[in-house]
Every structure is written in structure tokens, then in C-alpha cells.
Amino acid sequence: MKAKTTHILFDCDNTLVLSEVLAFDACGELASEILEKQGISEKYTGPQLMSEFVGQNFRGMVNSLQQKHNFQLPEDEMNKYVSLEEDRVISKLEEKLEPCDGVNEQLEKLAKSGKYTFAVVSSSAHRRVMASLAKAGQMSYFSSERVFSAATSLEKPTSKPDPAIYLHACERLGVAPMQCVAVEDSKSGALSAIRAGIPVIAYVGSYETDEKREEMSKSLKDLGAAVVMREWSEFESCLETIGAA
């Protein structure tokens, strides 16, 4: 039987806010610049990066590109690019970002119930997450101290599917993983939470086509997600399904 749920841990990108397309456009441009400086002619568009690396932060993407194309950036150069990517993405988010459909209404309803503590657990940098929450009108639900970033909150930066950021969040919040529920939209995010021992609600509403939503529903269930949520209006019933309400 599941332990009483006291904390809901939300992924940010394409779970709370529609940020991935905007962010990957910026990442594609910068990734192509990095490869060009390495003498590699291949270029990446935002959709190409998104297809390969959704759920990872930029450091994780660049590490994957280094393995794929057999090059190695010095740590100081990697840090420079990570900082530059953050600036470019935040600029795009502050201009165009919107919340996921229906999420703000659910956050308001959950907050009024007083049943749960909210936190954000993201691969993205803390500053980017805070900019996203501000633009989406969600700042009142998440204090800065309850926003955890695999890119900037850990002593050694990492990225989902490494469970380190979820384990870190649970430790800082003083809560056992089984007292939490995670909401994730990607394979890497779902795996991160599952490996940390946290039940996962898989949100597929941010995928643009019925075909992709069905594909991701199956993939995330096969990975071990407890239940699939197609719209935010289903959130309370999903909590009930996994015995977390």
C-alpha cells in the first residue's frame, strides 16, 4: 500500500510550462555553433535535438554530442556554453512562454485544498525555472527554496534520468520518496523519479499530435509510470488511481 502522499514534485518543462520548443530552438543554434568550432559540419535544428534529448539539460545534451561526434570540451568552455545557453533560452521564454493548458487551475485548486507541499524538480537551471514560473503566473505556488535543479542545485551537475536530483529534493524536503508523487512528461524525467522510488504520473498533454501522445503514453507506462494523464483536468483522478489522494 502506498504511503500517505504529502508532496507533489513537478517537472517544469512541458509539464508546468510549454517551454521545450522555445528552449530547443535556442539549443539547436548553439549546439550547431559548438560543432562548427570543432570542425564538424553537422547542424541541429530544435526539433532534431528535442527528438534525441528531450528531458535532458544542455550540459547533458553536449555530453551526448561529445560522445556521438568524438570530441571533448574543456570544463571551462563547457561552463561558458552552459551559461550562454541559459541566457539565450531565458530570453526566448520571457518573450513567448505560456503555461500548459489547464495547469494553473489545478495548482490553484490543489493549493486551496492544503493537502500537499509543492516542489519543482527539473533538469533545467534554477534561474531558467524561476523565469518560467514567473512568466507562467505560477510563482505563488513555488518558493525558490522548493525549486530543485539537476544543473545547478547539486554539488556535481547532472541531468535526468540520473535520480540524483529527486533524491536531493527528497532529502532537502525531509520526506521519503514514497510520500511523494512526481509529474513527468519525458522518458528521462520519468526514469529519474522511478529510479528514486517515486510514483510517477506521466503527463502527455503537451505532445502536439494524438499519435505522439499515444506513443508516449505507452512508452512511459512501459518504463513504470503509475498512471497516464492526458489533460490536467484529470490530475485529481490520477492521484486517486495511485492511492495518493
TrEMBL record:
Superkingdom of the organism of origin: Eukaryota
Q: Which Gene3D superfamilies match?
A: HAD superfamily/HAD-like (3.40.50.1000), Putative phosphatase, domain 2 (1.10.150.240)
Q: Which organism is it from?
A: Tetrapyrgos nigripes
User: A Pfam family for this UniProt protein?
Assistant: HAD_2
A GO MF annotation of the entry reads:
phosphatase activity
- What is the protein's name according to its record? Uncharacterized protein
PANTHER family, alphabetically?
A: CBBY-LIKE PROTEIN (PTHR42896:SF2), XYLULOSE-1,5-BISPHOSPHATE (XUBP) PHOSPHATASE (PTHR42896)
List the InterPro entries hit by this protein, alphabetically.
CbbY-like, HAD-like_sf, HAD-SF_hydro_IA, HAD_2, HAD_sf, PGP-like_dom2
Q: Which NCBIfam families would you find in this protein's record?
A: HAD-SF-IA-v3
Residue ranges annotated as transmembrane are none
